[in-house]
Amino acid sequence: MDLLRAVWRILAGISKAISVLVPLLFVVIFFAAISVSVSENAPKPLPDRAGLLIAPTGRLVEDRTPLKPLDALFADELSVETLLSTLIEGIDAAADDERITSIVLDLENLAGPSTSQSMEIIEALDRFTDTGKPVVAIGDYFTQSQYLLASQADTVFLHPEGGISLMGFDVYRSYLRRFLEKIKVNFHIFRAGENKSAVEPFMRDDMSPQEREVVGKWLNSLWNDYTTLVEKGRNKSPGEVTAFINDFPGRLEANGGNLAEAFLQEGYVDELLYGDDLEERVTEIVDARDEEGDLQLVSLKRYVSDIRDAFESEGQPLIAIVPIEGTLV
C-alpha cells in the first residue's frame, strides 16, 4: 500500500506539473511569436534615394467612414478609403525631402476622384514639380477622373492595349409621370417659379427646357475646368480636348482602331509600355535603385508614417483637424 501511495503521489505531482507547465509553455511561445512578428514588422529606415509611389485605393475622402470591426474585417477593395489630406501631406513633404527623387502615380485602384479633389492634388503636384523633381503616371487604363491627375505628370505611360475614357460630363434622370398614371398614383404638387426641378420627375416624361439650361450651364462649367487642366498639363491649345472627343471616331479610324495608339498620336500619353520595359523606363526617370539594381520606390503610407514619426520625435506641436458633416442639433 505504501508503494501504491508513493506512485500515486508521483503521478499526481506529474499531473500538476503538466497542468502548470503546458499553459506556461504556450504563453511563452505566444509572446515569443509576437516579439518576432513585431521585430520583423518594425519599420525600416527609408532608403537614401527613392521614388514616392502614390497608388491610392478606393475613394478619396476628407474623413474616413466609421466602420464596425466586423465590417472592416470583411470590407472589399471598393469600400477602402484614402484620406485626401494624407495624400497631399505626402506630396508636400516629398517636395523638400532630398531622399525622394520623384513621384510615380499609379491610379488603377483609385475610385474617382472628384474634380475638386483633383484640383487640390494638382496644386500639390505643382508645388512638387516646382522643385525640379519629375512626376510619372503609369496605368493600363485611365478613367476620365484618373486621367485628370495623370495628365499633370511630366511623363504618362499607357499599356499598349489600354486606353483613356474621355466622354465629357452628363446627367441622367428618371421621369415617372406615365408610370405614376398607370399605377393610379396622384401627386399634389405646389411650387412657385419656373426653376423648381426637384418635382419634375413626378410631373414630366422629359427634362424641361428651363432645367436643361440650368444643368447645361453647370456641366459646361465643370467640363471647362476639366479640359483647362488637361490642356495645361499636356501643353494643348484651349478647346483641343473637346475637339478631339467630338472627332474621336475619325481619330480612332485613322489609327486602325487602336485605342492606345490614337491617344499616343494625339499626345495624351508619351509612351506605350508594360512589363519589364515599363519598369526600366520608370527606373531611368526615378533614378533610384535598390541593392539588387531594381526600381526603388517607397509607398505613400510608409513615407507619411516615417515623416510623422520624425516630426513627433522632435516634440513639435500638432494641429488636430476635426471634420464636421451633417446637421448641428
Outline the structure in words.
With 329 residues, this protein is of the alpha/beta class. Helix content is 49%, strand content 13%. The protein has helices at residues 2-41, 69-73, 84-95, 115-129, 144-150, 177-182, 200-203, 209-233, 240-246, 248-254, 259-265, 275-286, 300-313, and strands at 50-54, 58-61, 81-83, 100-106, 110-111, 135-142, 155-164, 271-272, 297-299. The strands form two sheets. The protein has a six-stranded parallel beta sheet with strand order 8-7-6-4-1-9, sandwiched between helices. A three-stranded parallel beta sheet has the order 3-2-5. Helix 3 (84-95) runs parallel beside helix 4 and helix 3 packs across helix 13 (300-313).
Sum up the structure in keywords.
329 residues, alpha/beta, 3-stranded parallel beta sheet, 9 strands, 49% helix
What's the short story on this structure?
The protein is built from 13 helices and 9 strands. By secondary structure, it is α/β, with parallel strands linked by helices.
Cα-to-Cα separation, first versus last residue: 83 Å
Residue share in helices?
40-55%
Major sheet: arrangement of strands: 8-7-6-4-1-9
Largest sheet: 6 strands, parallel
H/I helix tally: 13
The averaged pLDDT comes out at 86
The best one-word shape is extended
- Helices and strands, in N-to-C order? HEEHEHEEHEHEHHHHHHEHEH
Report the count of strand segments: 9
Low-confidence stretches: none
Q: What portion of residues belong to β-strands? A: 5-15%
Radius of gyration: 30 Å
Structural class: alpha/beta
